[in-house]
Design brief:
single chain; Fumarylacetoacetate hydrolase, domain 2; 2 domains; eleven-stranded mixed sheet; 6 helices; 18 strands; about 15% helix; Fumarylacetoacetase-like_C
Amino acid sequence: MRIANLAGRLVLVTAGGAVDIDEASGGRFGPDPSAVYREWDAFVAWAASAPLPAGRTFDEASLGAPVTEPGQVFAIGLNYRGHAAESGVEVPVEPPVFTKFRTSLTGPRGDLELPTDTVDWEAELVVVIGREARRVAAEDAWAYVAGLTLGQDYSERTRQLVAPAPQFSLAKSFPGFSPIGPVVVTPDELADPMDLEIGCAVNGEQVQKARTSDLVFSVPELVERLSAVLPLQPGDLIFTGTPGGVGGGRSPQRFLRVGEEVSTWAEGIGELRQRCVPGTPYTTASAS
């Protein structure tokens, strides 16, 4: 299945277009794009047997974030060897974890407001949890995953690395800094959900390209390690980390500028597009 948020309503994207789930199910499943993950098993069973109507054509500009209200958003740092190397650190032995606050979530297309001149890109595979997961072994982890989507972990590097205590979560949670989409794809739709090409281009220049099989900690390992500490809830998101090629890792460093377009893609999932526009200027307290 390919699940999306079309103008605020839960839809299935089929070869014929978008099927409104509330209408097709006679109200059994409502229009809220996030609520379906709390009834995931029932929804999967219904979708497998329901006689779905023909889909309607739709404008991709009307797609919103396919998960709008996750209870928890996890983000993993340094999860590709290339990114660890360009960051000047060792490959971690445990996944470094932070959060992206959910008010930063947005849809797959739109404007990205730049609050400073040190905003960076980070293409990421994003996991959507479909069942409560507590102390789940890696070999069982896919059973707890509803699907995969694509994300950008936009990062304001000055705030992220401010002394004396870095502020990863705040620096990565400005409005619009967490676009996801365009759809959530169930693992069975993908030839190999553990080996997808992912990449990013700025104004047509490819800046990142990797395969998710290069992750230091795979999707099953992340589910295992996170669920060993706390329960993962239906609808939670896991940003799995970014490959090498970020602007802050270049020499000289290169950050996003007003007027540039960022295109992010993942094999079998789709594409995100953001146009960089001026934002409300932000200055850290230490620099004011």
